Amino acid sequence: MRPILHKLQKGIDDVIRQAEYFAETHESDSYHSSIIAGLVHVYTDTLSNLPPRIMVSGKFITDNDLANKIRTALLAGVRGAVLWRQVGGRRRQLIFGRKRYVEGARKMLKEMQAGGGVH
């Protein structure tokens, strides 16, 4: 495994362990910001250093909390793409299956908002 991939996987695993710890100790105030900070650290140590660099600009970037959420979303997007490819997903499947995926995501969101969780 390439060093950057190993570092990325280890960082994500560390954040998962941290999330499990906070879930067990019920420290809900610290949970969200600590998890976001952990994921931002993973992103800045790995993906932000790879070319081509993603440059985000604008007045909202001065808000550190929002900037961290953007970095976390970028990490999640890249991780989602990697997982998609690992299970055999292809670009054309996303293009032609978009409507089905959007409907499935909306259904899951409604279930989560209703308190039913994801099945």
What report would you give on this structure?
This protein is mainly alpha-helical and 119 residues long. It contains five helices and no strands. It has two domains: 3-88, no CATH class; 91-119.
Sequence-ordered SSE layout with sheet pairings:
Blueprint: H1 3-25, H2 28-45, H3 64-86, H4 91-96, H5 98-113
Helix pairs in contact: 1-2, 2-3
What are the main properties of this structure?
mainly alpha, 119 residues, single chain
What is the H/E order?
HHHHH
Biggest β-sheet strands, sense, barrel: none
Number of helices: 5
Secondary structure category: mainly alpha
What's the total number of strands? 0
Shape: globular
CA-based gyration radius = 17 Å
Q: Estimate nothing, just give the exact number of structural domains.
A: 2
Helix fraction, binned, reads over 70%
Question: What's the mean pLDDT score?
Answer: 83
End-to-end CA span: 32 Å
Regions with little confidence, pLDDT below 50 for 5+ residues: none
Strand content: under 5%
Brief overview, please?
The chain contains 5 helices and no strands.
